[in-house]
Amino acid sequence: MAKDLRVGLIGLGSMGRHHARVIRETPGMDLVAVADPAGDKWGVAGDLEVLPDVDALIAAGLDAAMVAVPTVFHEDTALKLAAAGVHTMVEKPIAADVESGERVAKAFEEAGLVGAVGYVERCNPALLEMRKRIAAGELGKVYQIATRRQSPFPARISDVGVVKDLATHDVDLCAWVAGSDYEAVSAQTAYRSGREHEDMVTVSGRMKNGVLVSNLVNWLTPFKDRTTIVTGETGAFVADTAMGDLTFYRNGEIPLEWSQVAAFRGVSEGEVTRFAFEKREPLRVEQENFRDAILGVREDHVSMREGVQALKVVQAILDSAQAGGELIKL
């Protein structure tokens, strides 16, 4: 019987504490070491010693590691793990800038190790169900993807703005759902909370396969909104990723002859279906994908190369905003 993977976790903050719980709950994974130079604020270490750094973590003898430190430390931490021969998943984004991300991805590729990036939205049950149904042809040709990711400011973030922290999720999931890389983006940002980094962004983009994309992201909305709308030939899928719900609005075939209603609701109405399906915790699915990639069972994880591609789009968004909304081609 195969032994459990010996897993280490560095970063015990607001995300690290959840990773600690999920790693412990994932069959085939054994959390054997944790590290954080700032200590264990959330008390997740249990009977494990809180190690001071990644070097001490590596010394514990690891098969795999989860990196949940602030973005500015991703590159140094990941490169040490690659040099030590440790399969690694890094919380999104892969690094602070494209060049750093390229170095990280290359290190894992050259070492023949599994390198993953924690884009947990790909594991959201509503988006998994949506993508499965799109692949089965239920939407026909995909025309447009629109996302809203709005919420109050999270005190956990201090080193990046809303683009690298939140919009990067939308960049990755839009490319994943569309099945295409970005061709061009245009963006506007705003600084409304007095912080160094942007706290609002609107993005308009186009994929290489012609799918149009729009993203509305901010940290200044007094409620949480996580919505993805994919419009295609036969209607539109609407995913509420905060609740894991998926609804399909089918194009209608029966004309509305009541003109006053038609003016408000469109020229025709079709069926509206809210799907029932299994809803598993996305973070748990993400860890299982990482585990299975290491074991060679399947490759449903987000690769570091995909992480670099998302970072290139994120940088183009920031460059466009800096240039007053100029269209940036990738």
- Uncertain runs: none
Report Rg.
21 Å
Overall number of structural domains: 2
**Overall 3D shape:** globular
The CATH H-level superfamily of the largest domain is Dihydrodipicolinate Reductase, domain 2
Strand content: 25-35%
Query: What number is the mean pLDDT?
Result: 94
Number of helical segments with 4 or more residues: 9
Helix fraction, binned, reads: 25-40%
With strands numbered from the N-terminus, the spatial order across the biggest sheet is: 16-13-12-11-7-10-9-8-17
Order of helices and strands: EHEEHEHEHEHEHEEEEEEEHEEHHE
CATH class of the largest domain: Alpha Beta
CATH architecture of the largest domain: 2-Layer Sandwich
Could you please say which CATH topology of the largest domain applies here? Dihydrodipicolinate Reductase, domain 2
Distance between the termini: 48 Å
Largest sheet: 9 strands, mixed
Topology record:
Blueprint: E1 5-10, H1 16-25, E2 29-35, E3 50-51, H2 54-59, E4 64-67, H3 74-83, E5 87-91, H4 98-111, E6 115-118, H5 125-135, E7 142-150, H6 162-178, E8 182-190, E9 200-207, E10 212-218, E11 225-232, E12 235-240, E13 245-250, E14 254-255, H7 259-265, E15 268-269, E16 272-274, H8 282-295, H9 304-322, E17 328-329
Helix pairs in contact: 3-4, 4-9, 6-9
